[in-house]
Design goal:
Length: about 100
């Protein structure tokens, strides 16, 4: 019985020691956060955002030019549904029952 209690106490002390070590490590990491340490991360994030926005703008402009200039034509029965160019063309069709 005493051995079980001793083993449990040792296990608990090791668990608390590990928790204290983890907490101390987190404190040390927050102290080391400086502009020098995060500058490259911020620079990379800003570059990626600008790159993604540039690609999005380019794709939208390409789609708009292609759809409004009549460059895309579909064979009868093969037009996509929904039409990807519908947002750029102003033709509206009405169906009567």
């Amino acid at each position: 019985m005493y051995r079980i209690i001793t083993v449990l106490l040792i296990a608990l002390s090791l668990l608390f020691a590990q928790a204290d070590l983890t907490a101390q490590t987190k404190k040390d990491e927050t102290k080391k956060t400086t502009e020098k340490n995060v500058a490259e991360t911020i620079r990379t994030q800003l570059f990626d955002e600008k790159k993604n926005q540039t690609m999005t703008d380019w794709a939208e402009n390409l789609a708009k030019r292609s759809c409004t200039s009549g460059e895309i034509a579909y064979q009868v029965g093969y037009s996509p549904n929904p039409d990807p160019c519908a947002q750029f063309t102003s033709t509206t069709s009405t169906t009567t029952p």
